[in-house]
UniProtKB/TrEMBL annotation:
Record flagged with keyword Heme: yes
Biological classification of the source: Bacteria, Bacillati, Actinomycetota, Actinomycetes, Propionibacteriales
Region annotated Disordered, chain positions: 1-23
Protein name: Deferrochelatase/peroxidase EfeB
Claim: tRNA processing is one of the keywords in the record: no
Organism from which the protein derives: Propionibacterium cyclohexanicum
Superkingdom per UniProt: Bacteria
One of the record's GO cellular component terms: cytosol
A Pfam family that the UniProt record links to this protein: Dyp_perox_C
Length: 433
């Protein structure tokens, strides 16, 4: 693959090739003053690109986004926020149960969260915003007053630490729920890893999603403490019937995702799982992207890494986005057109015994890092009926993916999502009965 040294000085100038054996990452790290200047230019360029992407997305989806829409929460076959077509924004937060929390504390928290979520998804406050007593604190923080439901969903996950003798739940621990093993290519930050509880709030209005998590977090009191949080935008994977969006590397993400009811039944939903039947396992990864270095690479090289065209999203062996990749096809010299180490080749179900997971990811940005470079990437959220499926895929990707030069897994967690609550009941109720 070609190596590049720096980005074009003008929009029409082609990048120059880097010397053989010099990594793209090293080229950026060894630059000093020019890197700082490039970072500032990159911020403006990225912001403009994000605006264009958002505007284009609004135009493309203006007939499908209804901010007045609400998503059912109670009495569903499966929990909302998984098969639900991905909304545009997400807030994901994890919590640690306190050392003094009891089984009853956990049960009460889940019951209170359930009642609050039922209000929130209907576009209602969870309590008084402006209490009559001047010395009273509002039960609801109020920033969503006047805002529509915006298809809000809140999905609650339970981590391995919930299913212990301490809470009397060891015997009800889902058979496949355990901490993820160490995987190739990850450099996890403990501050972005783990958790006993998770909240995934998704909505087509970012303030609605933030309001939901903010107010649910206020309800934990002494039962739990917040652990880590990530805010996502521009959903980086598509649901059925949605135009495939793009990740921050500019490529379509989610073209071959789980989409049909049959695929959900086969790959996502839990069956014969006791209290968790109808739910799913949730794996979350925070993946940092080396944005500036990626932007300095020529598009033809980027396309080889993904094995898709950047504009249409077609596999390199096809012409349209949804053409099936031909992983055996070769060029005139006998070389495979799709490199076996390309991202889609390693992740394809054809090359993994039919294995699939539901990707429901979002882009994120945390501003600038300590080096003054863009701190951004992918909030990878996936659902599956066996976490080993993710482990199998990530073991291959982490070891061989051509994309690894530009990404780093810095956060990780695993949870099980209970089935949807019944009217008058609460999330995880069967665990306590």
């Amino acid at each position: 693959m070609s190596k590049t040294s720096n980005a074009p000085e003008t929009p029409d100038e082609e990048p120059t090739a880097a010397p053989d054996g010099v990594s793209r990452r090293r080229l950026l790290i060894t630059a000093s003053a020019s890197a700082a200047a490039g970072a500032l230019a990159g911020i403006g360029g990225t912001a403009a690109a994000l605006r264009r992407t958002t505007q284009a997305g609004e135009a493309a989806h203006s007939d499908t986004v209804d901010l007045a829409a609400s998503v059912p929460f109670y009495d569903q076959a499966h929990p909302a926020g998984i098969q639900t077509p991905p909304q545009r924004y997400a807030v994901f937060m994890t919590f640690d149960l306190s050392k003094t929390a009891t089984a009853n504390d956990l049960r009460v928290l889940l019951a209170r969260w359930t009642a609050a979520i039922g209000q929130l998804v209907a576009g209602k406050p969870i309590g008084t915003v402006d209490p009559s007593r001047p010395d009273a604190v509002g039960a609801d923080s109020g920033e969503a007053e006047g805002l529509a439901p915006a298809s809000l969903t809140v999905t609650v996950g339970l981590g391995p630490g919930v299913f212990t003798d301490r809470f009397g739940l060891r015997e009800k621990r889902p058979a496949l729920l355990r901490q993820l093993p160490a995987l190739p290519g990850e450099h996890l930050d403990p501050a972005l890893t783990g958790g006993d509880l998770s909240l995934q709030a998704c909505a087509d209005d970012p303030q609605v999603a933030y309001h939901a998590v903010r107010n649910l977090a206020r309800m934990v009191t002494t039962t739990a403490q917040t652990r880590w949080v990530a805010m996502g935008f521009g959903r980086a994977s598509a649901g059925k019937g949605q135009q495939t969006p793009r990740n921050l590397m500019g490529f379509r993400d989610g073209t071959r995702n789980v989409s049909t009811p049959e695929q959900f039944d086969e790959h996502v939903w839990l069956t014969d799982a006791g209290a968790m039947t109808g739910g799913s396992y949730q794996v979350v990864r925070k993946i940092k992207m080396d944005i500036e270095n990626w932007d300095a690479d020529r598009v033809s090289d980027q396309e080889q890494i993904f094995a898709r065209t950047k504009d249409e999203g077609a596999p390199l062996t096809g012409t349209k986005e949804f053409d099936t990749p031909d992983f055996a096809k070769t060029d005139d010299s006998g070389t495979k057109i799709i490199d076996p180490r390309a991202h889609i080749a390693l992740a394809a179900h054809e090359n993994n015994g039919g294995l699939m997971i539901l990707r429901r990811s979002y882009n994120y940005t945390d501003g600038l890092n300590a080096q003054g470079l863009l701190d951004a990437g992918l909030l990878f959220i996936a659902y599956m009926n066996d976490p080993q499926h993710f482990v199998t895929l990530q073991t291959k990707l982490g070891a061989m993916d051509l994309l690894n030069e530009y990404i780093e897994h810095i956060g990780s967690a695993i949870f099980v999502v209970p089935p949807a609550p019944a009217s008058g009941g609460y999330i995880g109720q069967a665990l306590f009965e």
